[in-house]
Write a structure and sequence with these properties.
The chain is α/β, with parallel strands linked by helices. The chain has one domain: Aldolase class I (TIM Barrel, Alpha-Beta Barrel), CATH 3.20.20. It has 13 helices and 13 strands. Strands 3-4-7-8-9-10-12-13 form an eight-stranded parallel beta barrel, surrounded by five helices. α8 links the parallel β9 and β10. α5 runs parallel beside α6. It is globular. The two termini are 21 Å apart.
């Protein structure tokens, strides 16, 4: 009975050593090295089953907008932008994974380096800029995943955005293109207008712009035999008036949910070491521990303002079951990790689920 806890402790120690090694290198390169290494391990006969045995938590099913999530812990968009690591993330026990952000055309994103660690505060700054392979290539990967893994319980969300060069007044066309392409292969769709790393994107959080995007998406969605849940991901930097508009729109359009929140432009709650480093880094969205309280406050506001009538997913600064519990008490039904996954390692889902 003691073997698994001992092995779990061993895995945690090994990950800490690996993390200390990887943190010596560029963050974006280390990300791909790590995931490609996990991909290699999962390709070895028997190893995938062994890893699944140790990483999969006991099921704690959650029913939300017609989907059955095997547990409430998901992976936020931006980690697996191109749907390239679904098998590996399935092995690690995530209840859901959001791929993307996906844009109609492939794009390189912003100039490298564009991903930075602030280890003193367990934080990350990124200015990736919606780098992805484009909706066509990603659609093909999703289709292949569905064919090869028909019994997988992993719920997949499609996080969609606009290309950098698409004018804001035409942005709705990009969201429609992505919806039309991805809808047969994902379980729900998230409209991302809250990334701080695409110029002008956050202006689309304006009520009129959102109304246009969601009206067009709902028209297409309603023609499907099985319409997909439509969600909106928002920034943590909105004022109360803007949040009120979001709540009003979500209720009027009967959106299936809101995800709160994306990364922040604020540099509050940083230690002196991290604040100095953040100043050197410059622009980008901040995620991780400094965002925990801020995102929870937004969740609480949304929950009270909508009277609990909108499904909420909590994201931002989740590292432990205590953090996840804070989001759930604030009104969330599901939670998503990203930066916490980087710092805590592959046992994060199992640990949160065990202690939640």
């Amino acid at each position: 009975m003691q073997k698994q806890p001992v092995f779990s402790k061993y895995l945690s120690t090994m990950y800490q050593l690996l993390r200390n090694f990887l943190f010596r290198f560029d963050a974006e390169k280390a990300h791909y090295w790590s995931m490609n290494g996990l991909r290699f391990l999962c390709s070895i006969p028997g190893i995938r089953q062994l890893l699944t045995h140790f990483f999969q938590p006991a099921e704690k099913p959650v029913q939300l907008f017609g989907c059955t999530f095997r547990n409430p812990v998901g992976l936020a968009a931006g980690f697996d932008k191109n749907a390239a690591y679904l098998r590996e993330l399935d092995v690690l026990g995530f209840g859901h994974v959001e791929i993307g952000t996906v844009t109609p055309l492939p794009q390189e994103g912003n100039t490298k380096p564009r991903l930075f660690r602030l280890p003193a505060d367990k934080a990350i700054i990124n200015r990736m800029g919606f780098n992805n392979d484009g909706m066509g290539t990603i659609k093909n990967r999703l289709a292949q995943w569905r064919r090869e893994n028909p019994t997988s319980q992993l719920i997949i969300g499609g996080n969609i955005g606009k290309n950098k060069n698409t004018p804001n007044e035409e942005a709705w066309t990009d969201y429609v293109k992505c919806f039309d392409t991805l809808h047969p292969f994902v379980d729900y769709i998230i409209v991302n207008v809250s990334s701080p790393n695409t110029p002008g994107l956050r202006e689309l959080q304006d009520k009129d712009a959102l109304l246009k995007i969601f009206t067009e998406l709902q028209q297409r969605n309603n023609t499907l035999s099985k319409p997909l849940p439509l969600l909106l991901k928002i920034a943590p930097d909105l004022n109360s008036s803007q949040l009120d508009d979001i709540c009003s729109l979500a209720l009027d359009l009967k959106l299936d949910g809101l995800i709160a929140t994306n990364t922040t432009l604020s540099r509050e709650n940083l230690s002196m070491v991290s604040a100095h480093r953040a100043q050197e880094i410059g622009a980008g969205g901040l995620s991780g521990r400094p965002l925990t309280s801020k995102s929870s406050k937004v969740l609480t506001y949304l929950h009270h303002k909508t009277g609990g009538n909108i499904n909420l997913i909590g994201s931002g600064g989740i590292f432990t079951a205590t953090d996840a519990r804070e989001k759930i008490r604030a009104g969330a039904t599901l939670v998503q990790v990203w930066t916490g996954f980087i710092y805590e390692g592959p046992m994060i889902v199992k640990r949160i689920c065990k202690n939640l």
